[in-house]
C-alpha cells in the first residue's frame, strides 16, 4: 500500500513508471487518495450524526429539571391522571409549553409514560407541535425507541416526514439510532427515504456511514428495498 508521505515523491520522480503490474504510480496515488477521501467523508458524517444525537439527548435530560416544569407537565410525569383532568377542567391549556417549547405530550413521550400519552391524546393534546429545535413528539418517540408510541402517534395522523430545524425527519433519527423496527414502521406508513437533511444526507447516507456490519447492511437494505420485501 502506498503511504501518504510517499505520494509527492512518486509523482515527482518518474510518475509513469509501473508501480504494480498494469498500474502506474499516478494511478496508485489517485486510487489511494480517493479511498482516503471516502473514509474521511464517512467519518465526518458519523461524527455529525453523533453530535446531533448528543444534542437531542441533552435536550431530553433538561426535561427533568424541575425549574422548567409547569403543573400539567409535572402531573403527567408522575402519573397523576386524575389531577391532570382536574387541572384541565379548570381551564389549563393542554398544549402549554415550557421554555424549550415542550408540551406535556412531548414530556410524556420522552419519559415513556404510555398511559399518560394515550390519555393526553384522547383529551385533545396536539401531536403536531414542534419544540424550539423543531422536534415533534414523533421525533422523541423514535429517539427513545418507543415503538408502541410511534404506532399510536401515527394513528393520530402525525406527519411522518416532518423535519426538525436541521432537516432531520423521524426516519433519519430511526436510522441514526439504528432502530430497524421503528424505521420499518415509518417506511410502511409513508416515510420518504429520499428526503435530505440540511447537510444533504438521506437516511440511506446515514445508515451507510456506520460501517459494514450486519445491522448497517440490514438498515441500508430496508431503506433501499422497502419494508414489504
TrEMBL record:
Entry-linked PROSITE patterns:
ANK_REP_REGION, ANK_REPEAT
Keywords, A to Z, come to: ANK repeat, Repeat
The GO cellular component terms are:
plasma membrane
- Membrane topology per record: Peripheral membrane protein
Q: Where are the ANK repeats?
A: 100-132, 133-165, 166-198
Q: Where does this polypeptide localize?
A: Cell membrane
- Extract the Pfam families matched here: Ank_2
Protein name in the entry = Ankyrin repeat protein EMB506
Highest classification ranks of the organism: Eukaryota, Viridiplantae, Streptophyta, Embryophyta, Tracheophyta
